[in-house]
Amino acid sequence: MINFRKAVMVGCGFVGSASVFALMQSGLFSEIAMIDADMDKAEGEAMDISHGIPFAKQMRVYAGNYDDVRDAGIVIVTAGANQKPDETRLDLVHKNVGIFKSIIPEIASRDFKGILLIVANPVDILTAVAQKLSGLPENRVIGSGTVLDTGRLKTRLSAHLGVDSRSIHAFIIGEHGDSEIAVFSSANVSGIPLNDFCEMRGHYSHDEAEKNIAEEVKNAAYEIIQRKRATYFGVAMAVKRICECIVRDEKSILPVSAMMHGELGIDGVVLSMPCIVGSEGIETQVPIKLDEDELKRLRDSAGILKGIIEELDI
Ligand SMILES: NC(=O)c1ccc[n+]([C@@H]2O[C@H](COP(=O)([O-])OP(=O)(O)OC[C@H]3O[C@@H](n4cnc5c(N)ncnc54)[C@H](O)[C@@H]3O)[C@@H](O)[C@H]2O)c1
């Protein structure tokens, strides 16, 4: 029987262990099993994180194995190489597809009935790979996509506008990477069009500000990696937020990576679009309004991802 109070983390590096740390504090799960190719690493992280449990909510965090997948509600995959300074996410593709060829069949062979959440990069490509290798229905294989990038956009807009980031409705869509698109045309602050809110706050150079903010968001990972070698706290909170939507069947709208089937003229590519997320994974995509330039850039982003996926031997 599926147990939505149980999660499995595959990959216990920076991102995997920070995510389990965030999940441990969230109270969402009764148990989290941690798996890594380096068993000592999984054991050490599980021990360390479990020592925080008395200060949060009762649960178990332990080093496990693939048999833990059988009854898990969510399996999160963060295993894989991360970006080194000057590497793009797409540079990781061959290394991490190889790693997925060893991990995903282990999950699929356990008759897994829950939601598979892919976080390793390049996340859009690896979500497509995981869908193919697992044979699971597409709605149950989700990529964390541009949930983190959208968080970065809201953080930046919040500082620019002097308003709570949670009152801002704006999305980054497309690739989680260099061709991502900040959708400003439909962005708003609690229903007030973004440009109107900007003017209320004394900002009038809309094009220049949008360009700068989008660039900062796109380059955030490079800036962080240059300074501290890896990014993990922001993504850990994004993982926690996605798990929350699934476990609590929230049906919140999040920009997760999903397979496109002809929407906006894009077919056979996994990329991020706003989707309703709940206990079945992705319920449906939400038709976000794009202007002509945003639509063109989304199609270009899809073209880049499609070119890579077609070259892969999966
Ligand atoms: N989607 C996002 O928003 C986002 C954000 C940050 C990082 N990432 C990605 O997450 C991934 C992990 O990053 P990190 O900084 O934690 O890297 P890391 O090197 O710290 O950790 C990777 C872990 O994977 C393990 N691993 C490797 N092969 C394995 C296998 N076959 N089975 C089980 N475990 C295996 C390693 O032992 C290591 O502990 C990278 O691909 C990174 O680019 C994604």
From TrEMBL:
Q: What is the lineage of its organism?
A: Bacteria, Bacillati, Bacillota, Clostridia, Lachnospirales
Question: Which EC number applies?
Answer: 1.1.1.27
Extract the InterPro entries matched here. L-lactate/malate_DH, L-lactate_DH, L-lactate_DH_AS, Lactate/malate_DH_C, Lactate/malate_DH_N, Lactate_DH/Glyco_Ohase_4_C, NAD(P)-bd_dom_sf
Annotated organism of origin: Catonella morbi ATCC 51271
Its protein name is L-lactate dehydrogenase
Instruction: Name its cellular compartments.
Output: Cytoplasm
Give the chief site where it resides: cytoplasm
Role summary: Catalyzes the conversion of lactate to pyruvate.
Biological-process GO terms, alphabetical:
glycolytic process; lactate metabolic process
Family the UniProt entry places it in: Belongs to the LDH/MDH superfamily. LDH family.
Which residues participate in substrate binding?
A: 83, 89, 121-124, 149-152, 231
